[in-house]
């Protein structure tokens, strides 16, 4: 099921983009994230979609964006909207980057990966971060795999247990700054904010 995610978002790119532009529940978390990202700093957005609303919000606040998404249609929209920033069509699971970033975001994207794939990507994210850099992502609130529904289609979600995320943080130089297991203001999401040890 996780391997069908690309097809799902490619089919529904415009419907997803329209829905996302009407739904900006993550603003408060982005503001907290930006406290650890200097103006002019580089941000990696994993699962960036078409760049709305997250990339636009960060770009408007003078950050440089590198967005990664598996959907060519999504990336094409982002390139059209924000041509001065860097957009990569890729599966985040196989992404290799030499660049270091002041911040990494995986909002509503990491949880489409299997638990072991999430762990592997978080290890990469820790390596991509500059010392002191910020990491923002959401997960489930417990170890789980489930099938949800979006645009009338089944959609895979998974999560590690909070203790597993914390163990990854400890092993790979990340410090937990905040964890909300069920943030009502953000649609009930479980949200993590961490930073790389300086």
UniProtKB/TrEMBL annotation:
The keyword Signal does not apply. CDD domains: AdoMet_MTases (cd02440). It holds the Pfam family Methyltransf_25. The keyword Membrane does not apply. One of its GO terms (molecular function) is polyprenyldihydroxybenzoate methyltransferase activity. Keywords: Methyltransferase, Transferase. Residues 43-133 form the Methyltransferase domain. Coiled coil: none annotated. Gene3D superfamilies: Vaccinia Virus protein VP39 (3.40.50.150). One of its GO terms (biological process) is methylation. It comes from the Bacteria. InterPro entries: Methyltransf_25, SAM-dependent_MTases_sf. PANTHER family: METHYLTRANSFERASE. This is Class I SAM-dependent methyltransferase. It comes from Sphingomonas naasensis.
